[in-house]
Write a structure and sequence with these properties.
By secondary structure, the chain is of the alpha+beta class. It has two domains: 109 residues, 2-Layer Sandwich (Beta Polymerase, domain 2), CATH 3.30.460; 140 residues. It has ten helices and four strands; from the N terminus they run αβαβαββααααααα. The longest helix has 38 residues. It is globular, with a radius of gyration of 20 Å.
């Protein structure tokens, strides 16, 4: 029913089953169904990586402001809960209408697979990806979101699991944003699996060292069965990378200002 030949082999049967569930329950409104991320590009981390879907639906699907009808969501959840996701950890499904939010670019050329319907929005442009990268870096707080700090003040077995996963969805995109701002082609960057993206960071730099340390910490730990120390190591190394990003970006600003001043004096 779905052509999943471009996906990494472990993801194919999961994607086929999940896609069938999404299509069945949203058929009256379905415009297009897309899968993206490491299930397509490769480089997924067993036990950690998600399978990422984007559902594009007719505006009539959103009877409840900001979301689908409760009954539809409940039915989808019941069916998804029957799937064996190993070696992936989660399925992420996001819904959009044919009009994207102002701050949201369309799928990146080459970095997504259309499973059903057609893409009702324009693909991302290189300019949009560059602007998105710049916005993300200039607004990112390396000591991180209040939700992370708040979770570190709480304790219970497995309590850190989901905050850590959420934290990873901040760190990995930040690495791709940095590569774009360093001058790499935006389309090429977003088509890279994580190992190839990491390889573009020099191991001699703070950025390269902290990102590699973060990746090692993630691979050592298991997202839901990790020891407290393993989980904290993921957070510690991730924050170190984000701090390195902030320091690097501040240096870029200083260099840019210096060049501007030199030109003004000429």
């Amino acid at each position: 029913m779905f052509d999943t030949s471009r996906l990494v082999p472990p993801a194919r049967s999961i994607v086929e089953a999940a896609a069938a569930i999404y299509v069945r329950h949203t058929q009256p409104w379905l415009l297009g169904l897309v899968v993206h991320g490491s299930a397509l590009k490769g480089g997924f981390i067993p036990g950690w990586s998600d399978i990422d879907f984007q559902l594009f639906l007719d505006e009539h699907a959103f009877r409840v402001p900001g979301g689908l009808p409760f009954e539809t969501c409940l039915a989808i959840q019941r069916d998804l809960a029957q799937l064996d996701l190993a070696p992936f950890r989660c399925i992420q499904g996001k819904t959009f209408s044919a009009v994207l939010p102002a701050d949201h670019a369309g799928p990146v050329p080459g970095a997504y697979l259309l499973l059903a319907g057609k893409l009702p929005v324009a693909e991302a442009t290189k300019e949009q990806l560059w602007e998105s990268a710049r916005d993300a870096i200039t607004t990112r707080n390396p000591l991180l979101a209040p939700w992370l700090a708040e979770n570190l003040l709480q304790y219970g077995k497995g309590r850190l699991a989901w905050p850590i996963r959420g934290f990873c969805t901040v760190v990995w995109p930040t690495a791709y944003h940095v590569l774009i701002l360093q001058g790499h082609d935006p389309f090429s960057v977003w088509n890279l699996p994580k190992p190839q993206a990491i390889a573009l960071f020099s191991p001699e730099t703070s950025l390269g060292q902290t990102l590699r340390a973060f990746e090692r910490a993630v691979r050592i730990s298991s997202p839901f069965e990790a020891s407290e120390e393993e989980g904290l190591a993921v957070i510690t190394m991730g924050v170190a990378f984000l701090q390195a990003v902030q320091a690097w970006w501040q240096e870029q600003d200083r260099e840019s200002e210096s060049i501007h001043q030199e030109k003004a004096l000429q």
